[in-house]
Amino acid sequence: MNHLLDMEARTLAGLIGNGDILGTRMFMERIHLPLDVQDRLLFQFAAMTHADAASIASILESDSQSIVPDHLRY
After folding, report:
1. What would the pLDDT profile of 33-71 be if each residue is shown by its tens digit?
2. Would 53 disulfide with which of 8, 13, 15, 26, CB 3.0-4.6 Å?
3. DSSP result, 10-47
């Protein structure tokens, strides 16, 4: 997992843990996730019994549209 994905997962875990759905939606908008992806992610997050950063990161990674590779090689 790359550092950007880790930061996004930790931020989302904090927002979800506080029950801040509007803040969660606004953060996902700020990181330029399309609305259909936001809806799907919110649905998946709601189904989680414990929304920790690692679980959220795995969901983000599996649904990732990022073009940044996990490990940059020179």
Report:
1. 999 999 999 999 889 888 899 999 988 888 765 545 555
2. 13
3. HHHHHHHHTT-HHHHHHHHHHTT--HHHHHHHHHHHHH
Question: Model-level pTM greater than 0.85?
Answer: no
Question: CB under 8 Å to 24, separation ≥6 — which residues?
Answer: 12, 15, 16, 42, 45
Phi, psi of 66 (to 5 degrees): -70, 145
Token code pair at residue 73: 């090689």
Q: Terminus-to-terminus CA distance in the chain, angstroms?
A: 18
32: left (phi over 0), alpha (psi -120 to 50) or beta: left
d(CA 1, CA 70): 5
pLDDT tens track for 18-34:
999 999 999 999 999 99
